Amino acid sequence: DRKVMETVTASGKIQPETEVKLSSEVSGEVTELLVKEGDVVKKGQLLVKVRPDVLKSGYDRAVASYSSQKASVAGAAQLLRQSEGTFANEEAIYKRNVELFNKKVISLAEFDAAKAAYTTSKTNLARARADLTAAKFNLGQKGPNVQEASANLAKATIFAPVDGVISKLSVELGDRILGTAQNAGTEIMRISNLSSMEVNVDVNENDINRVKVGDSAAIEVDAFADKKFKGVVTEIASSSKDVGSA
To answer: Does the predicted model carry a pTM greater than 0.85?
Structure first.
């Protein structure tokens, strides 16, 4: 017995089975474009840098505010050290004057002056400690602002989410793009997994009834004239089109 093989011939287009479209979360100017169409990329590889004017200025403001507050902490710490020195000196003078006053060596006016200076230095010391505590608290409040601004700025650096090939590059260096935070965003590029390809084939209405899911397919590609690829029918669409996966 001879085995009879029925063949249906049709043409179509090859496309990657898996394709990832990349957009930026933020709007801005493309300042670095490190790949070109056709490049093979690895997951985590740096692809594009965008300069987001608004986020950059926000980050700069947060850093400037943090630096200013850091200087305030340093200033408050310096004042505290000075207040501690002044208090120690006035306290020593006051204690000596207590003894001298008790021995009737100094007048009441001199004793009161020493006591007032001591009390003032004690008040100033307490204020200096409170100022340093407040300055450190404010610094602690501004730290997360810098971290948040830095994290937002990092969104302007785009890395490859998967291994693949740059199958489409839609921007050039210097282009301004829209981010997904505002709307759909500008498509920057597409990364395709070329290890698994899909063929969309238009099959004649008269032939489609002879095709079923699971059928084997022999695929000829114009770019590979002398080579045939093996595939299998994975889906038959209701619009009389079948899809073969190589």
So the answer is: no
